[in-house]
Amino acid sequence: AQTVTQSQPEMSVQEAETVTLSCTYDTSENNYYLFWYKQPPSRQMILVIRQEAYKQQNATENRFSVNFQKAAKSFSLKISDSQLGDTAMYFCAFMKNYGGSQGNLIFGKGTKLSVKP
Amino acid sequence: GAVVSQHPSWVICKSGTSVKIECRSLDFQATTMFWYRQFPKQSLMLMATSNEGSKATYEQGVEKDKFLINHASLTLSTLTVTSAHPEDSSFYICSAAGQESNQPQHFGDGTRLSIL
């Protein structure tokens, strides 16, 4: 079975600074996807960034980037130039790649990020 | 981008009532829909997976007679909480996926269910 671990229940960062959220996972699969989702107080689930396991290049989306270390099963999220609107819960998630169909997401427990003015 | 509509967003009802939550994919065909439950300050836990035209697959510990899932079309799945009790109060959220595994799932906005 796959597991996702987020070891930082809460973090804070000053506006405009950089913060890194940690995530490790455990799986025997070789083909999978990893995600970071943001859940603001409205409780919408917003996809921040996605990484395909077979791609060595780290995914980047504007101020958000990941450090994907497949051998170490680590998938951290770096937020640069933090903004007040980045305040939210952040969930790391794993999904097995079934090839022709979608699987469910397995979520970590989340990290509550507070961006301070 | 793809949109998933989930209704109602918030429902309060008396114990013993059955509540139906709808999840619709508005601009794509959702071959698979997932139902998650989230308790306050906790993560999302998968309750069940439904494929269009098939019976839902429930996770261990989820009562299929209590949480009825129907996925009758490629754009609509429903979750009915039957004879709801206060312990069923939670945040329920659906996600919908098309056929291609390289496309991300799309989440509804969730339903806050409060049973008095």
Helix- and strand-based class of chain B? mainly beta
Tell me, rounded to a whole number, the average pLDDT of chain B.
92
Oligomer: heterodimer
Write down the secondary-structure element order of chain B.
Answer: EEEEEEEEEEE
- The overall pLDDT average of chain A reads 94
Q: Rg of chain B from C-alpha positions?
A: 13 Å
Instruction: Output the helix-strand order of chain A.
Output: EEEEEEEEEEEE
Distance between the termini of chain A: 41 Å
Q: Outline of chain B, from the CA principal axes?
A: globular
- Contiguous uncertain segments of 5+ residues of chain A: none
Estimate percent helicity of chain A: under 10%
- Count every beta strand of chain B, where a strand is a DSSP E run of 2 or more residues: 11
Shape of chain A: globular
> Number of helical runs of chain B?
0
Low-confidence parts of chain B: none
Describe the structure.
The complex is a heterodimer of chains A (117) and B (116). Chain A is mainly β and 117 residues long. In chain A, strands 2, 5, 6, 10, 11 and 12 form a six-stranded mixed beta sheet that branches. Chain A has a four-stranded antiparallel beta sheet with strand order 3-9-8-7, with no helix packed on it. Helices cover 0% and strands 51% of the residues of chain A. In chain A, strand 5 and strand 6 form a beta hairpin. Chain A is built from no helices and twelve strands. Chain B is mainly β and 116 residues long. Helices cover 0% and strands 52% of the residues of chain B. Chain B has no helices and eleven strands. In chain B, the strands form two sheets. In chain B, strands 2, 4, 5, 6, 9, 10 and 11 form a seven-stranded mixed beta sheet that branches. Chain B has a four-stranded antiparallel beta sheet with strand order 1-3-8-7, with no helix packed on it. In chain B, a hairpin with a 5-residue loop joins strand 4 and strand 5 (44-51). Chain B is globular and about 40 Å long. Chain B starts with a strand and ends with a strand. Chain A binds chain B through residues 35, 42-45, 47, 50, 52, 91, 97-110, and chain B through 31-32, 34, 38, 42-46, 49, 91, 93, 95, 97-99, 101-105, 107, 109-110, 112.
